[in-house]
Amino acid sequence: MWFTAPALASDLAEDAPEVRLEAWSAVVEGKPVVGLTWKIEPGWHLYWENPGDSGLATSAHAEVPSGWVLGDVRWVGPDRMVDSAGLVSYGWSDLTHAMWVVESSVPGRVSFASKWLACRDRCVPGESHATLPWKRDPRRRLAAAVADRFPVPSSAWAGARWEGSTLFLPGAERVEWFPSVGLELLSTVTSEKTSDGIALTVVREPGATGVGVVKVFSMREPQWLTVEAR
Description:
CATH architecture of the largest domain: Sandwich
Order of helices and strands: EEEEEEEEEEEHEEEEEEEE
Number of domains: 2
Number of strands: 19
CATH superfamily of the largest domain: Thiol:disulfide interchange protein DsbD, N-terminal domain
Largest sheet: 5 strands, antiparallel
Distance between the termini: 25 Å
Structural class: mainly beta
Radius of gyration: 19 Å
Shape: globular
Strand content: over 45%
């Protein structure tokens, strides 16, 4: 992904925002997980796996002891950000989270590393690290305020149904589409208001891969859904 955000700041300490990385463990849908939280200095933002028109994707890497097996990393749903030049980016302000399902484990210590680009009126690259001691599977459930930000299959939306390449979302008032890497230039996405919600049509060109995320606004808190182009 090319970089078209504001110019990189110098390496002076006063230019660097505070981005704290915290490791945690919890239970999600009955499965143990390990995760990370990025606490971002107010006024700054980080970027999703597809940063959009500008920025660089935030990375997350877990180094685990022998005997461990982790699932793929999962990120919370992104927000849409528009800068003064009209560039549209995808990412997060204040907080973001990622997690991995623990398929198997032994007592030990997990080490995490993340590379990120934080932007405000300028952009600063950085790297954060965290560790997590592990003795046994956690029993604490992940807080709902965090768990609810992770995208779920579109079938989780009450009354959702597919008709061809169109996904109908009853009760939705508006939506925002976030294409995954590889899908942004090879898909056509349109949405329109219906009598009872929103109709989202996603058509994928031949050769396109990936799953998009749609942020759904309604009378409730926003919800992020994963959507495969058809």
